[in-house]
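DM from R.C. (forwarded with permission)

"hey, sorry to bug you on a friday — could you get me a structure for this? deadline for the figure draft is monday and I only need the backbone to look sensible"
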Amino acid sequence: MAKVEFSHAATSGLVTVVIPTYRADDYIGEALTTISRQRFPNWELIVVEDASQGKTEGIVRQFAKDHPDHRVIYLRNEKNSGPSHSRNVAFQEARGEFIALLDADDRWLDTHLTAALGQLREQQADLVYSTVLLTEDITEQLMGLWGPDYQELQDFPHALFTRNTITPSATVMRRSVIADVGLWATNLRLCEDLDYWLRCLGEGKKFGYVRGCHCLYRQNRAEAATKNKCAVQESVARVAERYIGVAGTRESTCRNRISRTFARAARFHKQGDSRDPSRDLRKIPALLIKAWKLRPKRLDYLVRAAWWSLLNSCRKPAEPPAQLPVSLQSGMMWSASSGAATRGPTNRSVPLPFCMPPATRISARTPSSIGSTSDVSNR
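My reply, with the result:
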């Protein structure tokens, strides 16, 4: 990975908040408000809009006027390039000793930066994260928690090969992590966050866990990548497979966990929501074969792969969709240059903010832990 060229020297004690945004006019105002309410006062903000058109620029510029004591920068990509590219642009403009990630549709509790920085120093960690509160997009109803349970904390870092419990919006890292590990991968549209965490492991970076919940993560947003639940599960397995035996892990344990992750991805395609656009029963055999190759003793994976291959061969091919009149096609198709979804004769390509597995498991956190911190460290 090429060395990162920072435009500015690091300012001791300063936190750079990085927000990549795409079609988030209805949400970014709330995100900015939660930044301004942080108990930790020494922050700057860099917002990078990924070529979408709307009110975001005006909202950010007004926020800058309302907070003249803070450096607030608005940048814009000329073409849609994905959240990793947007984050990379912001990283290179950062002045902070610390980098705090926040997605435009998420929010922080006022304790977030104080708790994270306290644990970075106390644990002498390079990167810290906390459990997030899941809220429904429209109703704001609490849907559960997403974060590591006790066993996953004990099994870290191997637990990451099964379930990505580190949410970008709940993460704060030292700027030195970016300098040593490099920028985020821009060729991944799913699970680019997991890829970066595993790269951090490879560079020997120390992770720390912040007790309590200090971040609100929005579920069921129309633009969210996590609506493609089958694709997310599949991507977790494929990204993790690239890091088998990475520094600080045992290869045999990694292979076993990734095998289970491929099998779980197959199960999602089998049992998943029919409304999930990424669900495809034809992918089940290949996923089970991958699971078997990683754990050859699991012959049941091989048998199930053969069964599903036979079953799929007997299925009636789906009828192609009726061709729409040209006058309607233009209204159904979004510009490929914008990176948005397309229909009809073009390939489907959806902008994907970051990898966040669906809330199929709820971490065993109690309401009393919200807002608290501790010195629990990961191995």
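R.C.: lifesaver. Residues 251-271 form the longest helix (21 residues).
me: no worries. The first strand starts at residue 11 and ends at 21.
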